[in-house]
């Protein structure tokens, strides 16, 4: 009996260790400044919501393996992932490893993102996903969430959709051949103006490109003046 219990404890320890390594590796490989539209594409669930409750749940009752944070969220608006919401409730639970973030506060409103974990059947989030106080979301990002991000999201690795766009990180190469110059792509170099004020959409010409508005043009002008 003691042998079986020891084996079960070892398996539990191994599972937790593998989960921690997987989470940590994901955080180490996070892109530093992804475009919000890329974050929405990668997430399974994106909402505006208020943190009603935060609970710390120990990973193990016998060993100090840290804890999971369980956030109870009152959803105000869904941008992606309606299938994860109950028709009879506006509440949803997000899980996160305590040492991997995000660090959300009760009573505050956030833009929240999560991925669905098939093994645990839970919505899980971390610092690699887009979790930020709603007051910090710019007007351009709010427009993107409402109208553009999900609509034009071409997820890498999926079959190309004629009306979707893929954001490619790097500099567009006009002289080294046409292999990477495609109408289905927007090129992104981590620019502040694109990240804060613009979305990648299909233009009337059929090619993908960045939206422009007053804030975006003002931002680009400031960039030029600083050079």
Describe this protein's structure.
The chain has 227 residues and is an alpha+beta fold. It has two domains: 32-136, OB fold (Dihydrolipoamide Acetyltransferase, E2P) (Beta Barrel); 139-226, Alpha-Beta Complex (Tissue inhibitor of metalloproteinase-1. Chain B, domain 1), CATH 3.90.370. Helix content is 28%, strand content 28%. It is built from five helices and ten strands; from the N terminus they run ααββββββαββαββα. It has helices at residues 2-28, 36-42, 139-148, 192-197, 214-226; strands spanning 45-58, 67-80, 91-97, 109-117, 122-124, 132-133, 166-169, 185-188, 200-202, 208-210. The strands form three sheets. It has a five-stranded mixed beta barrel with strand order 1-2-3-5-4. A two-stranded parallel sheet has the order 7-8. A hairpin with a 5-residue loop joins strand 9 and strand 10. The protein is globular.
Find the CATH topology of the largest domain.
OB fold (Dihydrolipoamide Acetyltransferase, E2P)
Structural domains: how many = 2
The CATH architecture of the largest domain would be Beta Barrel
In DSSP terms, counting alpha (H) and pi (I) runs of 4 or more, how many helices? 5
Reading the helices and strands in chain order gives HHEEEEEEHEEHEEH
Shape: globular
**Number of E-type strands:** 10
CATH C-level class of the largest domain:
Mainly Beta
Q: Averaged pLDDT, please? A: 83
What is the rounded distance between the termini? 72 Å
Helix/strand class: alpha+beta
């Amino acid at each position: 009996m003691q042998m079986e219990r020891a084996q079960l404890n070892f398996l539990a320890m191994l599972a937790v260790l593998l989960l921690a390594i997987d989470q940590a590796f994901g955080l180490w490989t996070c892109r530093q400044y992804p475009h919000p539209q890329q974050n929405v594409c990668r997430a399974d669930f994106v909402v505006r919501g208020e943190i009603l409750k935060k609970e710390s749940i120990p990973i193990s009752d016998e060993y100090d393996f840290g804890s999971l944070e369980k956030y109870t969220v009152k959803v105000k608006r869904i941008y992606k992932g309606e299938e994860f919401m109950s028709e009879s409730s506006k509440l949803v639970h997000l899980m996160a490893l305590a040492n991997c973030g995000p660090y959300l506060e009760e009573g505050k409103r956030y833009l929240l993102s999560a991925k669905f974990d098939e093994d645990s059947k839970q919505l899980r989030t971390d610092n690699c996903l887009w979790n930020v106080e709603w007051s910090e979301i710019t007007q351009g990002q709010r427009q993107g969430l409402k109208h553009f991000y999900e609509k034009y999201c071409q997820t890498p690795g999926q079959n190309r959709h004629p009306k979707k766009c893929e954001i490619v990180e790097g500099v567009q190469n006009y002289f080294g051949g046409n292999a990477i110059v495609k109408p289905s792509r927007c090129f992104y170099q981590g620019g502040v103006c694109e990240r804060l004020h613009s979305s990648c959409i299909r233009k009337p010409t059929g090619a993908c490109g960045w939206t422009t508005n007053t804030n975006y043009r003002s931002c680009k002008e400031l960039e030029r003046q600083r050079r």
